[in-house]
Amino acid sequence: MIYFDAGATTLEKPLAVSRAAGQAVRTMASPGRGGYPATRRAEETAFACRSEAAELFGCASPEQVVFTSNATHGLNIAIHSLIKPGCRVVLSGYEHNAVTRPLHAIKNVELTVIDTTLFQPRQAVEEFARALEGRVDAVVCTHVSNVFGYVLPIEEIAQLCRDKNVPLIVDASQSAGVLPVRLDRLGAEFIAMPGHKGLYGPQGTGLLLCGKEHPEPFIYGGTGSVSRQQTMPEDLPDRLEAGTHNMPGIAGLLEGLRFVRRTGTDRIARHERAIIAAAARGLRQMPQVHLYQDPTMEHQAGVLSFTVDGWDCEEIGSRLAAAGIAVRAGLHCAPLAHKTAGTLESGTVRISVSAFNTLQQAEEFVRVLRRVIRENARF
Amino acid sequence: MEYYLLIARSITYAQRMQRALRQAGIPSGILRAPAQVNPKGCSHAVRIGPEDLTRAQNVLSAAKLQPNHIYAKTQQGYEEVAP
Q: Fewest CB within 10 A of the end CB: N or C in chain A?
């Protein structure tokens, strides 16, 4: 199988990830809950994971790294902590439902969507600047569109937010482990990311980087600390980590983070872009294929969307799956992004790659797609 | 005097303190804080030897780490030596 759905979850991981997760199942109990070796092992692993993430993502302290179950969980914490009924929120036109649904669930939130053209970061900066001229209570922005791989100008947007003293929430679901994501440089209030995509951890893991010292808790419960008190602890990470930790996930995530740091995000990004560029070159030879691509790849990460004239994108996805190629088709849980790009009615077929994909796989994918389209044309 | 307990606000904070002490060559261990020194219920402490308190305080201060409380463990029990 050729797995081109890394934007959903990276399926191929470093071997150490599953090994560490399996070992954690057998040997680790709950961190912070006891004084015996199984809790000590869990505590050391959790701390090592926070420390590794803090180094990679520019957090001054490992306490700013909060474990979540995925990016959606982190985004819900961030959004509900910052945004209250009546708030005015600015968001990019490329947000995932993990952002738009939590916002929709808060009553009377006034949303301003920055509706700009794909791969035009300058335009995005100008529109964000314009939107921030009025009263804004928060900005939520994805770093990379999960549908199109469009790299939004997050550093410039963060600068605008800092200039206006507006808190920023960044969705780093597609960029963490691939592009520079630095809490210290962005000065964001929160950066949410999954552990199971570009960080190569197991599913059920995520990280929320907290720039704010005492965010409002989202889930309440036991933390193994200040137990007589009926309010959540004041300090991070306990304040946002009620309940038992996912130690197999965290142990696996630690190995994923080590892999990313060892390999280097620059190298991973170059590799992914090369594969996407190769696939795009092949697809461009097919007149029926409509590509959503930045030809320079400067503003695009390892994600590529396309449509095929006369084909339902789900049909393409199914045919490719039958031929052993895993892609994602449809709206990718991001109807807003499709609306912004003008693909809401059709959806797209998306390929998304990881450090474990190869250029040969891109070439094979193109060959198979060409065959699928040609065979259909016979009937 | 047997040892000192540096009370931390969380297990993660205790681990940060221990890491700073380790880097300075000061031996330490993390333990669940005894109930007597733990009025809010459940916390963690870093234990250090009686000869290391001053140096440990300097190391932690340089690392911008501040224990919630410091207790001395004697044969009579725990005695707070610093808030």
A: C
Read off the CATH number of the domain in which B57 is found.
Answer: 3.30.70.1530
Query: Does residue A135 have a pLDDT over 50?
Result: yes
User: Are A238 and B30 within 8 A, CB to CB?
Assistant: no
Residue B54 sits in which domain range?
3-81
Q: Are B10 and A32 a contacting pair at CB < 8 A? A: yes
Using CA atoms, how far apart are residues A82 and A167, in angstroms rounded to an integer?
8
Give the ipTM of the model, two decimals please.
0.91
Beta strands at A168-171 and A138-142: parallel, antiparallel or unpaired: parallel
C-alpha pair distances (Å), A73 with each of A66, A322, A378, B16: 11, 33, 47, 26
How far apart CA A370 and CA B11 sit, in angstroms, is 56
Burial class (CB in 10 A: 0-12, 13-18, 19+), A157: buried
Gap between the terminal Cα atoms of chain B? 18
Q: For B15-41, what is each residue's pLDDT tens digit?
A: 999 999 999 999 999 999 999 998 888
Angle at CA of residue B66, ends B64 and B67, nearest 5°: 155
Put simply, the answer to whether B41 touches A238 (Cβ < 8 Å) is no
Per-residue pLDDT band for A339 (boundaries 50, 70, 90) equals very high
A167, A138 in Cβ contact below 8 A? yes
Interface check for B23 against chain A (CB to CB < 8 A): the answer is: no
* Cβ of residue B30 closer than 8 Å to a chain A Cβ: yes
What average pLDDT does this structure show over A177-186?
98
Considering only CB atoms, B15 lies closest to which of A47, A223, A227, namely A47
- The amino acid occupying position A208 is L
pLDDT in tens, A15-44: 999 999 999 999 999 999 998 999 999 999
Domains, chain A: 2-10+264-375 (3.90.1150.10)
Sign of the torsion formed by the C-alpha atoms of A264, A173, A273 and A357: positive
Alpha-carbon distance A227 to nearest alpha carbon in chain B (angstroms)? 5
- CB-count exposure of residue B75 (10 Å: 0-12, 13-18, 19+): exposed
Q: How many domains does one find in chain B?
A: 1
Q: Which residues have CB under 8 Å from A234's CB, separation 6+?
A: A214, B9
